[in-house]
Design goal:
single chain; alpha+beta; Immunoglobulin-like; about 30% helix
Length: about 300
């Protein structure tokens, strides 16, 4: 019995030794665990942060420039603001700023084209205009001394005309005539005017459209309009006369085959009955004819 008991102890001791070895091994593993370092990687936010500005909308400068470029009278300011915004963004894409510069450039090109077209049209009208003036007092078939023809607009007619005399204006667009019907002095005055001439002269005239019809770039106009701005007036001494503010009418919207009456009113500060009138079909150009009216 005791022998068997003594034989069991080595077995128990061996098992206990193995358990202790295993336990110490496990303990050493746990003891060494705190010495192991764990490395955590940092999240990368740099790319997202750099892309944030690109998600922002257009700048107020670009929006303002774009709006101004759409308006004809402010497109230059739109171009300037668009360029400033493009420079400020250092060449980065900016749709509205680019659009502002492009639209403004189109306005500039269009303005230049219109200026050239209008200038060329006025120049052609000035150079090709023929003015024929004749005196109805000498319109008898046996007499041609009253007919004077001018081939260039730089030359003007100067002759003495009377009431009833006719001036024929011939242009590339057709012909119309101006006839002076009546010239008289009036005692009527405008109480609200600061002008105080010695005399006030009324000149009535009639305009007849023979076949005038103006066509340019698809635009068609067959109306003749004669205003006081078409005339310059001078007295016998060559002094310029001012218009006087009385109720007057102008010969406007005269179509081919029709006539209309108009009136000129001037203040005169001398006793002579002579007024020199310069008439220009285009008020911006030189005079086409000079008429000395006596009454």
């Amino acid at each position: 019995m005791s022998k068997n008991s003594s034989n069991q102890y080595p077995l128990n001791i061996g098992y206990s030794q193995d358990f202790e070895d295993q336990s110490s091994s496990n303990t050493s593993q746990y003891d060494s665990a705190p010495n192991q370092s764990v490395v955590y990687s940092q999240p990368q936010y740099s790319s997202n942060q750099q892309s944030e500005p690109e998600k922002k909308g257009q700048s107020a400068l670009a929006i303002t420039g774009f709006v101004l470029s759409l308006i004809g009278c402010t497109y230059i300011a739109g171009i300037i603001l668009g360029i400033i915004d493009l420079v400020r963004t250092k060449g980065k894409k900016n749709g509205l700023a680019i659009a502002a510069v492009a639209i403004g450039g189109a306005w500039v090109l269009l303005s230049c084209m219109l200026f050239v077209i209008v200038y060329a049209g006025n120049k052609a009208t000035e150079n090709n205009k023929h003015v024929t003036s004749y005196n109805s007092s000498y319109s008898d078939a046996s007499t041609d001394s009253g007919n004077v023809e001018v081939e260039e607009s730089a030359e003007v007619i100067s002759d003495v005309y009377h009431v009833g005399d006719v001036i024929s204006i011939q242009t590339d667009s057709g012909e119309y005539t101006i006839t002076f019907i009546n010239i008289e002095e009036t005692s009527e005055r405008n109480m609200f005017s600061d002008k105080d001439p010695e005399r006030v002269i009324l000149i009535d005239f009639k305009v007849e459209n023979i076949d005038y019809e103006y066509t340019f770039g698809g635009y068609k106009n067959n109306e003749v309009n004669v205003y006081s701005s078409n005339f310059n007036a001078f007295d016998a001494d060559g002094e310029a006369l001012d218009t006087y503010p009385l109720t007057t009418k102008y010969a406007t919207s005269v179509t081919p085959g029709h006539t209309a009456s108009g009136q000129l009113v001037y203040g005169l500060d001398n006793d002579t009955n002579l007024i020199e009138l310069e008439y220009a079909d285009n008020p911006l150009m030189n005079a086409d004819v000079t008429i000395n009216l006596e009454w």
